[in-house]
Prior knowledge:
The complex is a heterodimer. By secondary structure, chain A is α/β, with parallel strands linked by helices. Chain A has ten helices and 14 strands. Chain A folds into two domains: 2-88 and 136-221, Rossmann fold (3-Layer(aba) Sandwich), CATH 3.40.50.300; 226-283, Alpha-Beta Plaits (2-Layer Sandwich). Chain A is 34% helix and 25% strand. In chain A, strands 6-7-8-3-9-10 form a six-stranded mixed beta sheet, with helices on both faces. Chain A has a four-stranded antiparallel beta sheet with strand order 2-1-4-5. In chain A, strand 9 (203-208) and strand 10 form a beta hairpin. In chain A, 45% of the residues are buried. Chain B is mainly α. Chain B is built from ten helices and no strands. Chain B has helices at 12-30, 34-52, 58-87, 90-95, 101-130, 135-162, 166-182, 195-201, 205-216, 224-248. In chain B, helix 2 packs across helix 5, helix 3 (58-87) packs antiparallel against helix 9 (205-216) and helix 6 packs antiparallel against helix 9 (205-216). Chain B starts with 11 loop residues before the first helix and ends in a 6-residue tail after the last helix. The chains are: A alpha/beta, B mainly alpha. At the A-B interface, helix 2, strand 6 and helix 3 of A face helix 1 and helix 4 of B.
Amino acid sequence: MSLVCEGLTKIYEGSPVPALDSVSFTLPTQGVFVLIGRNGSGKTTLVRILATNLEATAGTATLNGINVMSEPDQIRERIAIVPQEARPIPWMTPLQSVLSYLLWRGLGYAEAKQKACEMLDRLKFGKKARALNRTLSGGMKRKVLMAMILCTEAEVIFLDEPTTGLDPISRREFWEVLQEIRKDRFVVLTTHYMEEAEQLADTIGVLEEGRLIALGTLDELRRRLRYNYSVKLLSIPAPPITLTEGEMVKGRHDLPVILTTEDEAFRIAQNLSRERIKFTINPVGLEDIFFYMHSGGDTGGS
Amino acid sequence: MAVKNLKRKRSRLSQVFAGILVNSVYEMENYPIVLLNTVVSPLSILLVIVFVSRGSLFGVAIEGGFIMAMFSAGMGLSTDLSHLKNDFKLQDMIVSSPTSWLTYMIGISFSEIVYAIPALLVLTILASFGLSLTLAEVLEFVAVLLLIFITSISIGYTLSTFSSDIVQSFAFTRLISTIFSTIPPVYYPITYIPLPFRYLAYLSPTTYAAELVQGISGYLALSLTTVIIDWTVLVAVTIALFVLAKTKARWREV
């Protein structure tokens, strides 16, 4: 079973540039597929098209053999989404939120209530299951949305930036919930957090200006980069460094990052230590790959 | 991934019930103050009309209150759907679920009726003093109200799917409410409007509804031709707006 996109394109009315530009890929519908990319790179557009929220301008997509464009009703039996910036209705309780969503999915009242109670117990809501959503913390509110879709029978779950704005502990709690979901469902998740993508993804897709510029497992993406170590300098401007092998790119907060081989990385590290310049040294991570791609680095295409 | 048979039997009744729970029952349960709001709106103009006419238009004003309550209920659907769609992203969650646009709209529409129950109860009590109708006339009266309700929810649903935020939605619904239920002769007989302007009033479907109910209760003497025209226009407008909602509203966005 697979998710197949062919030439998926979206041009919003009045926009001169496509939000999604001929995106094509095939993926097995197992585990977690994480989409990363800058704001406006097309992540949400792709998710909304696949979740039947939005019509594509061109191209096709099939999910487990069902055409997303021409058979939306069949797809909708099998999917659930937590959209970007979704929040539970403040005048309802978590129990009411989960119960009503299950009713919308067509379950009978008694079954829906039983499932809602079981899920909220499983997610340790305790007394908060009957508190108004407006009184809950940001993390708990997201948990309510997760509970809503977790209770469903949907085999494909779309989560659009579900952890944006959450504190690190709430985010980790969310990851735990996601580990539950991934056991028997396919999850499509978008995020700005590279650590999250590394932690959760079975497959990672990188979007840039509507184009899919890379797709693969973390190891596959790593292998596409010619370098396997990154030296992050903690000072601006970067001290003069002669590289025999490697490239310097701008990383987080514009701090210089040297992507290079293991031997070269340790040679640079020794030099930096002698000069008393602060730095960190690590195997290449997704964040390094991401910055490298966005600086125009070549990863050999997708 | 194992292929599962997910074509389970789904209850349309549950899906409709969900809309009623979310948009009226839970809201009323957790914020009871909203109950007052539904009563105040149709009663306020009714009181003004009764005072100005020194009681002579009591019955007409009650009928106007009913029409206004039903029309406002439909307009309320627009702002409520816009709120659920844009502020909570609930509509996106529903679109990606087995609920169809029609079931969702019916559920939320019923919730607007539930929301209007306090106003309808007060108006029914007042009607028992000011109106004297036979069972057949009551049924005719209810049919008119039903058509006006379907008209307004069709407008409300279509507007909501195009709205991108609640402020925009409020602006449209206030404008439409004023045009359809305050300017036309809903609370008083159409004969009170001077002739050249009377034709303008006929641009609103609520005018036909008001004329019919005022005819039913004896406040207006309508010829058979007028009754037939009023019913025809009202039914045609209702069907046209419903078809417009079905074909032009954006359930899946473009």
